[in-house]
Specification:
Blueprint lengths: L2 E6 L1 H4 L8 E4 L3 H10 L4 E6 L1 H13 L5 E4 L3
Helix pairs in contact: 2-3
Length: 74
Amino acid sequence: MSRIAAIGEAERLRGFAFAGVQVVAVDHPEAARTAWQGLAEDVGLVILTPTAHAALGDERLEQRRERLWVVLPA
């Protein structure tokens, strides 16, 4: 069974924790990249804030094609 994770600013993701989403709060681009690399193999969907998405870039996201990701609206 796959899990869901969210990466980005804490204030944008706080509510997702109530739904059982693994929230990884980050406050700078390098932390977002570290969080992405550190996700467990069973994470199948990642919710990103626009800031985290910009830090990761599409190239990095495409390296893990088995993992779906979505960007929250700005």
